[in-house]
Design brief:
The chain is an all-alpha fold. It has two domains: 86 residues; 57 residues. Helices cover 85% and strands 0% of the residues. Helix 1 packs across helix 7, helix 2 packs antiparallel against helix 3 and helix 6 runs antiparallel to helix 7.
Length: 153
């Protein structure tokens, strides 16, 4: 039983870290609202000593120019909602709440088709690492949920 709690707590820490990162992104997006984002992007590119005429810096600056206050606010709200979901899930897993075990299984499994598609489109180390971690989480949560169910029967 102690192994179950260690595994759930490891996943809880993973989810809490995703929640904290999303929280930071949400606050960062909120901070950017009301500012000239394109100008900030140009300053950032210049600070990195990148050529503004090159393809990727130009795309970055153009995308930043498309961000208006309402889009930034919507993105910030979305990031905050995601953060709340991940932090509530982390709390529930840390305290071994049954519904969060199911939630962790389903929320991990829902991403798998997209991750597989992404790997077929462009194989990359970060994509493979994310996919493998997600597979481990889904497999572990399946074992926890259905392993307990079979033990109770």
């Amino acid at each position: 039983m102690a192994g179950k709690f260690r595994g759930l707590r490891a996943i809880a820490l993973l989810e809490a870290s995703k929640g904290c990162l999303a929280l930071a992104v949400g606050f960062g997006l909120h901070y950017l609202a009301g500012q000239n984002v394109q100008q900030l992007a140009e300053q950032f590119v210049a600070h990195l000593h990148l050529n503004v005429a090159k393809h990727y810096p130009a795309i970055f600056i153009a995308a930043a120019g498309e961000l208006n206050n309402s889009r930034l606010t919507l993105l910030a709200i979305g990031a905050m909602a995601y953060a709340i979901i991940r932090l509530v899930e982390a709390y529930g897993l840390w305290h071994s709440l049954r519904w969060t075990e199911w939630f962790a299984l389903l929320s991990g499994a829902i991403y798998l088709p997209f991750e597989i598609y992404e790997l077929f489109e462009k194989l990359s180390w970060p994509g493979m690492v994310v996919f493998l971690i997600n597979i481990l989480v889904v497999a572990y949560m399946t074992h926890i949920i259905f392993g307990q169910h079979n033990q109770a029967a």
